[in-house]
Design a protein that fits this description.
With about 300 residues, the protein is α/β, with parallel strands linked by helices. It is built from 13 helices and 6 strands. About 45% of the residues lie in helices and about 15% in strands. The chain has a 4-stranded mixed sheet with strand order 4-3-2-5. It has a two-stranded parallel ribbon with strand order 1-6.
Length: about 300
C-alpha cells in the first residue's frame, strides 16, 4: 500500500501556498509583490493568483492580510476581555457557524488514559487535506487524532507522533475507514449538525477541559492562553493551558491553531507556524464566503 494517497487539488495547492508563505515569512519587511513570490514558487503571477483563489477563495493579497500580525491582533480586538464568554454572540453564519456546531465529543475515562490505551484498537490512515497530507487516527467511538506530513517520508513520522500518545493501544492501517473522517473534518460541504463528526478526547482531566474549551472558539476568531485559563476557572494557569494546547492530538478539528499570544503574535504550533498561518487564512476565507477578494501586491 502506498504511503500517501493521490493528492487532491486542495492538497496540491497547499504545497504552493506553503512555499509562498515560507518565502513571505522570511522576507516580510521587503513587502514582496505577487510577481516576486510567483517566481520563487515557479509559477506565473496569474497561475499563483488562480491557485490561491481555488485553494481558499481569496487573492494572495487578501489571504496574506488575513494571516499577518495585524490580522491576528484584529482577531483579539474586542470590547470584552474574555473572548470565549461571548463566542456564540457573534452572529456567525454560513460554513463558519456550521463548523462550530457539527462536532460532537466525548472523553475517554481516566482509567483508559492511565493505561495508555490498553485494549484499544485504533485505526489510522492517510488522506489529502487543504493543509497537506493528513494522518488520522480513530477508535470505534470516533476520531482521536489528526497530524500532518509535508513530505511523503513524513507520514510515518506523523503517525508515530500520534501513536506514541497511546503506547499500549493496538494500531491498524485502514485508509478506507479513515477517509470519511477526513472528508468531514476538512470539506465544508460535509459540515452539518445533522451528521456530526464524533471525536474522542484522550488526555488528563485538565487537558480535556482545555480541549473542550478550544471547541468553543469560533472559526475565523482567536483567543489567548490567558482567556482560556479564565474561562476554565484557573486564571493563574496560563502556562499549564499552553502545555495542554500543545498536546492537543486532534489538530484543526480541536482548533489549537486559534490560540495566539496576548500581543497578537501567532506563537508556536506543533505542526509548524506556516501551517498555522495557512489554517487561519483558510478559515478567514470560509467566513468571508463569496465576498470579493482584493488584487494587487501581496502585502
Amino acid at each position: 500500500m502506498a504511503l500517501t494517497p493521490e493528492p487532491s487539488a486542495a492538497a496540491a495547492d497547499y504545497d504552493v501556498v506553503r512555499r509562498a508563505l515560507e518565502h513571505l515569512t522570511t522576507r516580510f519587511r521587503s513587502q514582496p509583490t505577487v510577481e516576486q513570490v510567483a517566481d520563487v514558487v515557479g509559477l506565473s503571477p496569474s497561475h499563483l493568483h488562480h491557485v490561491f483563489r481555488r485553494w481558499c477563495g481569496l487573492s494572495p493579497k487578501a489571504f496574506l492580510q488575513a494571516v499577518t500580525l495585524d490580522r491576528a491582533r484584529d482577531l483579539l480586538r474586542r470590547d470584552d476581555v474574555n473572548l470565549l464568554d461571548a463566542s456564540y454572540e457573534l452572529g456567525l453564519s454560513g460554513p463558519g457557524r456550521l463548523h462550530d456546531l457539527f462536532v460532537t465529543h466525548e472523553a475517554m475515562s481516566p482509567g483508559d488514559f492511565k493505561t495508555g490505551g490498553a485494549g484499544l484498537v485504533i485505526r489510522w490512515g492517510v488522506a489529502p487535506s487543504p493543509f497537506g497530507v493528513a494522518v488520522l487516527t480513530a477508535t470505534d467511538r470516533g476520531l482521536c487524532g489528526i497530524g500532518f506530513a509535508d513530505q511523503a517520508g513524513g507520514v510515518q513520522e506523523a503517525y508515530r507522533d500520534l501513536a506514541r500518545r497511546w503506547p499500549a493501544a493496538g494500531f491498524a492501517r485502514d485508509d478506507a475507514a479513515i477517509g470519511p473522517y477526513a472528508a468531514q473534518a476538512f470539506d465544508p460541504a460535509c459540515w452539518s449538525p445533522d451528521r456530526p463528526l464524533r471525536v474522542v478526547l484522550i488526555g488528563t482531566d485538565f487537558e480535556v477541559t482545555v480541549w473542550r474549551t478550544l471547541l468553543g472558539v469560533p472559526l475565523g476568531r482567536a483567543t489567548t492562553y490567558g482567556d482560556i485559563a479564565q474561562t476554565i476557572g484557573r486564571p493563574k494557569a496560563a502556562r499549564a493551558v499552553g502545555a495542554a494546547v500543545g498536546k492537543n492530538p486532534i489538530s484543526f478539528v480541536v482548533p489549537c491553531h486559534r490560540v495566539i499570544g496576548r500581543d497578537g503574535a501567532l506563537t508556536g504550533y506543533h505542526w509548524g507556524l506556516t501551517r498555522k498561518r495557512a489554517m487561519l487564512g483558510w478559515e478567514t476565507a470560509k467566513r468571508r464566503g463569496d465576498r470579493p477578494a482584493e488584487d494587487g501586491a501581496v502585502a
